[in-house]
Amino acid sequence: MNSRTTTKDQERVRRDSSLSKTEQNFLESIQNNNAVRRKEAIKEIVLKCSATSFDVYIDEIKRLSWENSKLRQKDHMIDRKGKMEKIQERIISQKNEQIRKISQEVEKTRSELKRLRLASTKKSIS
Q1: Using CA atoms, how far apart are residues 48 and 44, in angstroms rounded to an integer?
Q2: pLDDT of 73-82, one tens digit each?
Q3: With CB atoms 3.0 to 4.6 Å apart as the test, which of 40, 52, 66, 78 could cross-link to 26 if both were Cys?
């Protein structure tokens, strides 16, 4: 290989870094088959382009499907967490209500004991 070919190959690699693997394979197949130099029929080039675009389309569909699946999982987890939070809030509310009722009963009992103690003290003084 001469330096001119090496430089062209390096430029090609730099330009191809933004292409997908399928697109790079397509370009390499055209270059490797010397399609342009052999003046291959336009129909064959169009068919290769069509096949490559279909492959790119399939790859994109797979990627989007995977992303969609991940988003659904994330959405499901968020829904589940939201439901769990609501359940916990309801449990906390029920416990708070129970505590309030028990506190009222304790206060009534305390008042009753205080009243009885005062009555008992008055009887013992009399």
Answers
A1: 6
A2: 999 999 999 9
A3: 52
